[in-house]
Design a protein that fits this description.
Shape: globular
Subcellular location: Late endosome membrane; Lysosome membrane; Mitochondrion membrane
Organism: Macrostomum lignano
Oligomer: single chain
Largest sheet: 8 strands, mixed
Order of helices and strands: HHHHHEEEHEHEHEHHHHHHEHEHH
Main location: membrane
InterPro entries: AB_hydrolase_1, AB_hydrolase_fold, AB_hydrolase_sf
Strand content: 5-15%
Protein name: acylglycerol lipase
Length: 382
Protein backbone atom coordinates (compact mmCIF):
# COMPACT_ATOMS: atom_id res chain seq x y z
CA UNK A 1 0.00 0.00 0.00
CA UNK A 2 1.51 3.27 -1.00
CA UNK A 3 1.24 6.49 0.98
CA UNK A 4 -1.63 7.99 -1.03
CA UNK A 5 -3.77 4.90 -0.63
CA UNK A 6 -2.96 4.81 3.09
CA UNK A 7 -4.01 8.45 3.45
CA UNK A 8 -7.29 7.91 1.60
CA UNK A 9 -8.07 4.91 3.76
CA UNK A 10 -7.40 6.88 6.96
CA UNK A 11 -9.56 9.77 5.72
CA UNK A 12 -12.46 7.55 4.85
CA UNK A 13 -11.95 7.70 1.11
CA UNK A 14 -13.02 11.34 0.84
CA UNK A 15 -10.16 13.30 2.25
CA UNK A 16 -11.90 13.71 5.61
CA UNK A 17 -11.56 11.63 8.77
CA UNK A 18 -14.23 8.96 9.00
CA UNK A 19 -15.31 10.15 12.41
CA UNK A 20 -16.40 13.46 10.88
CA UNK A 21 -18.35 11.67 8.19
CA UNK A 22 -20.24 9.14 10.26
CA UNK A 23 -19.94 10.44 13.77
CA UNK A 24 -17.12 8.04 14.67
CA UNK A 25 -17.03 5.52 17.43
CA UNK A 26 -17.67 7.03 20.84
CA UNK A 27 -18.39 10.46 19.46
CA UNK A 28 -22.05 10.41 20.55
CA UNK A 29 -23.29 11.76 17.20
CA UNK A 30 -25.20 9.97 14.48
CA UNK A 31 -26.77 10.80 11.12
CA UNK A 32 -25.35 13.57 8.95
CA UNK A 33 -21.83 14.74 9.30
CA UNK A 34 -20.86 18.02 10.89
CA UNK A 35 -20.22 19.54 7.51
CA UNK A 36 -23.64 18.49 6.25
CA UNK A 37 -25.35 19.92 9.29
CA UNK A 38 -23.43 23.18 8.93
CA UNK A 39 -24.40 23.43 5.28
CA UNK A 40 -28.01 22.75 6.17
CA UNK A 41 -28.00 25.50 8.80
CA UNK A 42 -26.47 27.99 6.40
CA UNK A 43 -28.98 27.18 3.70
CA UNK A 44 -32.04 27.60 5.99
CA UNK A 45 -31.90 31.38 6.43
CA UNK A 46 -34.63 33.04 8.58
CA UNK A 47 -37.72 34.28 6.74
CA UNK A 48 -37.52 37.99 6.06
CA UNK A 49 -40.50 40.20 6.94
CA UNK A 50 -42.87 41.40 4.28
CA UNK A 51 -41.37 44.26 2.35
CA UNK A 52 -44.72 46.18 2.51
CA UNK A 53 -44.86 46.10 6.31
CA UNK A 54 -41.22 47.02 6.56
CA UNK A 55 -41.71 50.02 4.27
CA UNK A 56 -44.83 51.15 6.20
CA UNK A 57 -42.91 50.98 9.47
CA UNK A 58 -40.03 52.95 8.03
CA UNK A 59 -42.48 55.69 7.01
CA UNK A 60 -44.75 55.63 10.10
CA UNK A 61 -42.04 55.58 12.76
CA UNK A 62 -40.49 59.00 12.03
CA UNK A 63 -43.95 60.51 11.52
CA UNK A 64 -45.19 59.23 14.90
CA UNK A 65 -41.99 60.32 16.58
CA UNK A 66 -42.28 63.77 15.01
CA UNK A 67 -45.92 64.13 16.10
CA UNK A 68 -45.04 63.11 19.65
CA UNK A 69 -42.25 65.66 19.83
CA UNK A 70 -44.52 68.30 18.31
CA UNK A 71 -47.24 67.63 20.91
CA UNK A 72 -44.71 67.81 23.73
CA UNK A 73 -43.30 71.10 22.47
CA UNK A 74 -46.76 72.63 21.96
CA UNK A 75 -47.91 71.36 25.36
CA UNK A 76 -44.87 72.88 27.09
CA UNK A 77 -45.39 76.14 25.18
CA UNK A 78 -49.04 76.33 26.24
CA UNK A 79 -48.28 75.35 29.83
CA UNK A 80 -45.55 77.89 30.46
CA UNK A 81 -46.38 80.71 28.04
CA UNK A 82 -50.12 80.69 27.25
CA UNK A 83 -52.26 79.20 30.07
CA UNK A 84 -55.33 80.92 28.57
CA UNK A 85 -55.06 78.86 25.37
CA UNK A 86 -54.31 75.77 27.46
CA UNK A 87 -57.51 76.29 29.47
CA UNK A 88 -59.60 76.85 26.34
CA UNK A 89 -58.12 73.78 24.65
CA UNK A 90 -58.86 71.58 27.67
CA UNK A 91 -62.38 73.01 27.94
CA UNK A 92 -63.03 72.27 24.26
CA UNK A 93 -61.67 68.72 24.56
CA UNK A 94 -63.83 68.02 27.62
CA UNK A 95 -66.91 69.42 25.91
CA UNK A 96 -66.29 67.19 22.89
CA UNK A 97 -65.70 64.16 25.10
CA UNK A 98 -69.01 64.82 26.86
CA UNK A 99 -70.72 64.65 23.47
CA UNK A 100 -71.90 68.26 23.29
CA UNK A 101 -72.07 69.82 19.82
CA UNK A 102 -71.78 73.61 20.02
CA UNK A 103 -73.22 75.98 17.45
CA UNK A 104 -73.90 79.68 17.17
CA UNK A 105 -77.25 81.35 16.68
CA UNK A 106 -77.82 84.83 15.31
CA UNK A 107 -80.65 86.55 17.16
CA UNK A 108 -81.55 90.25 17.05
CA UNK A 109 -78.14 91.10 15.62
CA UNK A 110 -76.29 89.32 18.44
CA UNK A 111 -74.43 86.01 18.43
CA UNK A 112 -75.37 83.38 21.03
CA UNK A 113 -74.06 79.88 21.57
CA UNK A 114 -75.91 76.70 22.42
CA UNK A 115 -74.76 73.10 22.81
CA UNK A 116 -76.67 69.91 22.16
CA UNK A 117 -76.44 66.17 22.72
CA UNK A 118 -78.70 63.46 21.36
CA UNK A 119 -81.78 63.86 19.18
CA UNK A 120 -85.08 65.35 20.22
CA UNK A 121 -88.14 63.11 20.43
CA UNK A 122 -91.55 64.76 20.68
CA UNK A 123 -92.76 61.88 22.84
CA UNK A 124 -89.91 62.27 25.35
CA UNK A 125 -89.11 65.34 27.43
CA UNK A 126 -85.79 66.96 26.55
CA UNK A 127 -83.48 68.55 29.12
CA UNK A 128 -82.89 72.31 28.95
CA UNK A 129 -79.72 73.15 30.90
CA UNK A 130 -79.09 76.67 32.24
CA UNK A 131 -75.73 77.44 33.85
CA UNK A 132 -74.90 79.79 36.70
CA UNK A 133 -73.26 83.19 36.92
CA UNK A 134 -69.86 83.58 35.15
CA UNK A 135 -70.03 79.99 33.84
CA UNK A 136 -70.76 78.53 30.40
CA UNK A 137 -72.03 75.29 28.84
CA UNK A 138 -68.76 73.51 29.70
CA UNK A 139 -69.77 73.56 33.37
CA UNK A 140 -72.30 70.83 32.44
CA UNK A 141 -69.64 68.54 30.92
CA UNK A 142 -69.50 66.02 33.77
CA UNK A 143 -73.29 65.93 34.01
CA UNK A 144 -73.86 65.62 30.24
CA UNK A 145 -71.22 62.91 29.90
CA UNK A 146 -73.56 60.60 31.85
CA UNK A 147 -76.48 61.18 29.47
CA UNK A 148 -77.17 58.39 27.01
CA UNK A 149 -77.38 60.15 23.65
CA UNK A 150 -79.42 57.25 22.22
CA UNK A 151 -82.19 57.66 24.78
CA UNK A 152 -82.05 61.28 25.96
CA UNK A 153 -81.77 64.73 24.42
CA UNK A 154 -80.35 67.81 26.09
CA UNK A 155 -79.95 71.42 25.04
CA UNK A 156 -77.58 73.71 26.96
CA UNK A 157 -77.74 77.47 26.41
CA UNK A 158 -75.21 80.15 27.25
CA UNK A 159 -76.71 83.23 28.81
CA UNK A 160 -75.90 86.65 27.30
CA UNK A 161 -72.38 87.77 28.23
CA UNK A 162 -71.24 84.25 29.12
CA UNK A 163 -68.95 81.94 27.16
CA UNK A 164 -69.51 82.37 23.44
CA UNK A 165 -72.73 84.39 23.83
CA UNK A 166 -72.42 88.14 23.42
CA UNK A 167 -74.49 90.76 25.21
CA UNK A 168 -76.01 93.64 23.28
CA UNK A 169 -76.53 97.09 24.78
CA UNK A 170 -80.29 96.59 24.45
CA UNK A 171 -80.24 93.43 26.56
CA UNK A 172 -82.27 93.35 29.79
CA UNK A 173 -80.60 91.55 32.66
CA UNK A 174 -83.40 90.94 35.09
CA UNK A 175 -84.16 87.27 35.50
CA UNK A 176 -87.49 87.32 33.66
CA UNK A 177 -86.00 88.95 30.53
CA UNK A 178 -83.16 86.42 30.70
CA UNK A 179 -85.74 83.62 30.76
CA UNK A 180 -87.41 85.16 27.70
CA UNK A 181 -84.03 85.28 25.95
CA UNK A 182 -83.55 81.59 26.70
CA UNK A 183 -86.99 80.93 25.18
CA UNK A 184 -85.98 82.85 22.05
CA UNK A 185 -82.83 80.69 21.75
CA UNK A 186 -84.86 77.52 22.18
CA UNK A 187 -87.23 78.62 19.42
CA UNK A 188 -84.36 79.66 17.15
CA UNK A 189 -82.85 76.20 17.63
CA UNK A 190 -86.11 74.67 16.37
CA UNK A 191 -87.52 73.35 19.65
CA UNK A 192 -90.38 75.77 20.33
CA UNK A 193 -92.87 72.88 20.67
CA UNK A 194 -90.52 70.37 22.31
CA UNK A 195 -91.49 69.52 25.93
CA UNK A 196 -88.66 70.49 28.25
CA UNK A 197 -87.30 69.49 31.62
CA UNK A 198 -85.75 72.81 32.67
CA UNK A 199 -82.68 72.32 34.88
CA UNK A 200 -80.60 75.11 36.36
CA UNK A 201 -78.10 75.67 39.16
CA UNK A 202 -77.22 78.78 41.17
CA UNK A 203 -78.40 81.85 39.23
CA UNK A 204 -79.41 79.52 36.39
CA UNK A 205 -81.90 77.85 38.76
CA UNK A 206 -83.65 81.20 39.21
CA UNK A 207 -83.75 81.67 35.42
CA UNK A 208 -85.09 78.11 35.09
CA UNK A 209 -87.86 78.87 37.59
CA UNK A 210 -88.80 82.03 35.71
CA UNK A 211 -88.85 80.01 32.46
CA UNK A 212 -91.21 77.45 33.98
CA UNK A 213 -93.49 80.23 35.25
CA UNK A 214 -93.56 82.12 31.92
CA UNK A 215 -93.87 79.10 29.62
CA UNK A 216 -95.84 76.41 31.47
CA UNK A 217 -96.98 74.90 28.15
CA UNK A 218 -93.39 73.84 27.40
CA UNK A 219 -91.90 73.30 30.85
CA UNK A 220 -93.08 69.81 31.80
CA UNK A 221 -90.55 69.39 34.60
CA UNK A 222 -88.38 71.73 36.66
CA UNK A 223 -85.21 71.02 38.63
CA UNK A 224 -83.64 73.82 40.67
CA UNK A 225 -80.21 73.07 42.15
CA UNK A 226 -79.00 75.40 44.91
CA UNK A 227 -80.81 78.50 43.55
CA UNK A 228 -79.13 81.77 44.42
CA UNK A 229 -81.40 83.22 47.11
CA UNK A 230 -81.12 85.42 50.15
CA UNK A 231 -82.89 85.27 53.47
CA UNK A 232 -86.09 87.36 53.17
CA UNK A 233 -85.80 88.38 56.81
CA UNK A 234 -82.10 89.37 56.62
CA UNK A 235 -81.12 92.95 57.34
CA UNK A 236 -79.83 95.28 54.63
CA UNK A 237 -76.38 95.20 56.21
CA UNK A 238 -76.32 91.39 56.13
CA UNK A 239 -77.42 91.36 52.49
CA UNK A 240 -74.70 93.87 51.56
CA UNK A 241 -72.07 91.73 53.25
CA UNK A 242 -73.38 88.60 51.50
CA UNK A 243 -73.28 90.36 48.12
CA UNK A 244 -69.67 91.36 48.73
CA UNK A 245 -68.72 87.75 49.50
CA UNK A 246 -70.60 86.41 46.51
CA UNK A 247 -68.87 88.91 44.20
CA UNK A 248 -65.45 87.48 45.06
CA UNK A 249 -66.66 83.87 45.16
CA UNK A 250 -68.64 83.90 41.90
CA UNK A 251 -66.61 86.49 39.97
CA UNK A 252 -63.06 86.49 41.42
CA UNK A 253 -60.66 89.20 40.29
CA UNK A 254 -57.31 87.59 41.18
CA UNK A 255 -55.64 84.21 41.44
CA UNK A 256 -55.88 84.26 45.25
CA UNK A 257 -59.59 85.12 45.09
CA UNK A 258 -60.14 82.29 42.62
CA UNK A 259 -58.51 79.69 44.87
CA UNK A 260 -60.54 80.95 47.84
CA UNK A 261 -63.71 80.89 45.71
CA UNK A 262 -63.17 77.24 44.76
CA UNK A 263 -62.79 76.32 48.44
CA UNK A 264 -66.06 78.03 49.34
CA UNK A 265 -68.03 76.78 46.36
CA UNK A 266 -67.18 73.12 46.96
CA UNK A 267 -67.19 71.11 50.18
CA UNK A 268 -64.51 68.78 48.87
CA UNK A 269 -61.45 70.41 47.27
CA UNK A 270 -61.58 70.21 43.48
CA UNK A 271 -57.99 69.53 42.29
CA UNK A 272 -57.08 71.90 39.46
CA UNK A 273 -53.56 72.58 38.17
CA UNK A 274 -52.24 76.08 38.84
CA UNK A 275 -51.72 76.87 35.16
CA UNK A 276 -55.29 75.82 34.37
CA UNK A 277 -56.55 78.13 37.13
CA UNK A 278 -54.47 80.94 35.67
CA UNK A 279 -56.01 80.31 32.25
CA UNK A 280 -59.51 80.21 33.77
CA UNK A 281 -58.91 83.56 35.44
CA UNK A 282 -57.59 85.12 32.23
CA UNK A 283 -60.66 83.84 30.39
CA UNK A 284 -63.05 85.47 32.88
CA UNK A 285 -61.30 88.77 33.59
CA UNK A 286 -62.51 90.61 30.44
CA UNK A 287 -66.12 90.05 31.60
CA UNK A 288 -65.48 90.60 35.30
CA UNK A 289 -67.27 93.95 35.63
CA UNK A 290 -70.24 92.68 33.63
CA UNK A 291 -70.57 89.59 35.82
CA UNK A 292 -70.37 91.58 39.04
CA UNK A 293 -72.93 94.10 37.79
CA UNK A 294 -75.21 91.22 36.77
CA UNK A 295 -74.84 89.66 40.22
CA UNK A 296 -75.71 92.96 41.92
CA UNK A 297 -78.76 93.31 39.67
CA UNK A 298 -79.90 89.72 40.25
CA UNK A 299 -79.31 90.03 43.99
CA UNK A 300 -82.03 92.63 44.32
CA UNK A 301 -85.05 91.30 46.19
CA UNK A 302 -87.36 91.18 43.15
CA UNK A 303 -84.82 89.06 41.26
CA UNK A 304 -83.03 86.98 43.86
CA UNK A 305 -86.25 85.66 45.40
CA UNK A 306 -88.00 85.28 42.06
CA UNK A 307 -88.82 81.64 42.81
CA UNK A 308 -90.87 82.74 45.81
CA UNK A 309 -92.49 85.61 43.91
CA UNK A 310 -93.49 83.45 40.92
CA UNK A 311 -94.21 80.31 42.94
CA UNK A 312 -97.94 80.24 42.18
CA UNK A 313 -97.26 80.38 38.43
CA UNK A 314 -94.90 77.39 38.47
CA UNK A 315 -97.19 74.46 37.77
CA UNK A 316 -94.58 72.00 36.49
CA UNK A 317 -93.58 69.05 38.65
CA UNK A 318 -90.65 70.45 40.62
CA UNK A 319 -87.46 68.90 41.95
CA UNK A 320 -85.25 70.68 44.50
CA UNK A 321 -81.60 69.73 45.05
CA UNK A 322 -79.32 71.40 47.58
CA UNK A 323 -75.89 70.84 49.05
CA UNK A 324 -75.98 70.54 52.82
CA UNK A 325 -72.70 72.46 53.18
CA UNK A 326 -73.63 75.22 50.70
CA UNK A 327 -72.01 78.51 51.80
CA UNK A 328 -73.39 80.70 49.01
CA UNK A 329 -77.09 79.87 49.30
CA UNK A 330 -78.00 78.44 52.69
CA UNK A 331 -79.69 75.05 52.77
CA UNK A 332 -82.26 76.38 55.25
CA UNK A 333 -83.91 78.11 52.28
CA UNK A 334 -84.76 74.71 50.77
CA UNK A 335 -87.56 74.15 53.30
CA UNK A 336 -89.05 77.58 52.65
CA UNK A 337 -88.89 77.01 48.89
CA UNK A 338 -90.51 73.60 49.20
CA UNK A 339 -93.43 75.10 51.13
CA UNK A 340 -93.90 77.89 48.60
CA UNK A 341 -93.80 75.95 45.33
CA UNK A 342 -97.15 74.23 44.68
CA UNK A 343 -95.96 71.05 42.97
CA UNK A 344 -92.72 69.86 44.61
CA UNK A 345 -92.49 66.13 43.92
CA UNK A 346 -88.94 65.44 45.10
CA UNK A 347 -86.51 67.24 47.38
CA UNK A 348 -82.93 66.07 47.96
CA UNK A 349 -80.27 67.39 50.33
CA UNK A 350 -76.81 66.07 49.44
CA UNK A 351 -74.50 65.61 52.41
CA UNK A 352 -70.84 66.59 52.07
CA UNK A 353 -71.62 68.77 49.08
CA UNK A 354 -71.36 72.52 48.58
CA UNK A 355 -72.80 74.98 46.08
CA UNK A 356 -71.32 73.64 42.84
CA UNK A 357 -73.27 70.40 42.57
CA UNK A 358 -72.61 70.01 38.85
CA UNK A 359 -68.83 69.99 39.43
CA UNK A 360 -68.44 68.45 42.86
CA UNK A 361 -70.86 65.51 42.68
CA UNK A 362 -72.13 65.22 39.09
CA UNK A 363 -72.89 61.49 39.40
CA UNK A 364 -75.19 62.01 42.40
CA UNK A 365 -76.72 65.06 40.75
CA UNK A 366 -77.45 63.14 37.56
CA UNK A 367 -78.75 60.11 39.46
CA UNK A 368 -81.29 62.21 41.35
CA UNK A 369 -82.39 64.03 38.20
CA UNK A 370 -82.80 60.71 36.36
CA UNK A 371 -84.81 59.28 39.27
CA UNK A 372 -87.10 62.33 39.19
CA UNK A 373 -87.58 62.03 35.41
CA UNK A 374 -88.31 58.31 35.68
CA UNK A 375 -90.88 58.76 38.43
CA UNK A 376 -92.68 61.53 36.56
CA UNK A 377 -92.67 59.51 33.35
CA UNK A 378 -94.27 56.58 35.15
CA UNK A 379 -96.93 58.87 36.63
CA UNK A 380 -97.70 60.33 33.21
CA UNK A 381 -98.29 56.96 31.55
CA UNK A 382 -99.87 55.13 34.51
Amino acid sequence: MNFDEFGKDMLGGSGRPSSFRSGGAGSGHSGNSFADRHASMMSSTPREPSSGLWLAWQIAYPICLGLLNFCLVVGAWLWFKHPLYLFRLLRWLQTRRAGLRCRQIQLDGTVYRIAEKGRADKFRTSMLLIHGLADDVSSWNSFVELIDAQAEHCLAVELPGHGGSLASSAEEFDLEPLARRVRSLVCAAGYEKQPMHVIGYSMGACVAGAYAALYPEQADLLTVAAPLMRQPSATEEANTELLHRLSSWLAPASYDELTVALRHRAYRPVPVASQVLTGMLEDRLPKLEFHRALLANCFEEANCNILLRLAEQITAATHIIWGKQDELSLVSLAGQLQKSLPNVCQSDILDECGHSLELECPANFFGLVYKFRKNQSLKKFS
